[in-house]
Amino acid sequence: LFSLLSYFLILNLQLTMNYKLTRGWRNNNPLNIIHSKSEWQGKSPVQTDKRFVQFVSMAYGYRAAIKTLQSYYNAARKAGKVFNLEFIIHRWCPDGKEQNYINTVVKHSGVDQKAALPEPRTREAMPTFVKIMAGMTVQECGVPIKEMPWEDIEKGYSLAYGVSN
Question: For residue range 70-84, what is the model confidence (pLDDT) as tens digits?
Fold first, then answer.
């Protein structure tokens, strides 16, 4: 009985620690933003990952994420489309696995996938987008909600727009 209990305790510890080994976590880029022409604030001076941006802190990774979501909002408005979770995830994850991604974010954020979302850079939108980014972090890195870096998400938001809860 003791060895069986020890096995489950070790297995649980491994499952909760695995996210810390993910590329997004190691890069301080929990939503796995791909290198582009953008010169992100907080980008690490040394970039050893050829595909994903590395940031100096988790907060700067979240700052880049909310800035990206703002650009999606702008694109949706320009195209006359509804800015909602479906729009976001189809742009973020265009690989045929969008519905699974949407389901994860809905489950962890409580945001309806079809509901129109407010402009991200407003103070009123912050609580909604903090939850959305947490749900995306679950999908991207496997972070359990109980271990979510809420302070880093909120700090990233503040770095982006100077707003706080």
Answer: 999 999 999 999 999
Instruction: Calculate the CA 92 to chain-centre distance.
Output: 10
Over residues 128-163, the pLDDT tens digits come to 999 999 999 999 999 999 999 999 999 999 999 987
Identify whether the C-beta of residue 108 lies closer than 8 Å to the C-beta of residue 131: yes
Q: Which of 132, 113, 159 is nearest to 31 (CA)?
A: 132
Q: 91-94 — which CB contacts under 8 Å span 24+ positions?
A: 92/31, 92/136
Work out the burial of residue 98: count CB atoms within 10 Å of its CB; fewer than 13 is exposed, 13-18 middle, 19 or more buried: middle
Distance separating alpha carbons of residues 15 and 8, to the nearest angstrom:
10
State yes or no: pLDDT of 93 exceeds 70: yes
Q: Cα(158)–Cα(103) distance, rounded to whole angstroms?
A: 27
Distance, CA of 109 to CA of 95 (rounded, Å): 22
Give the 3-state secondary structure of residue 139.
helix
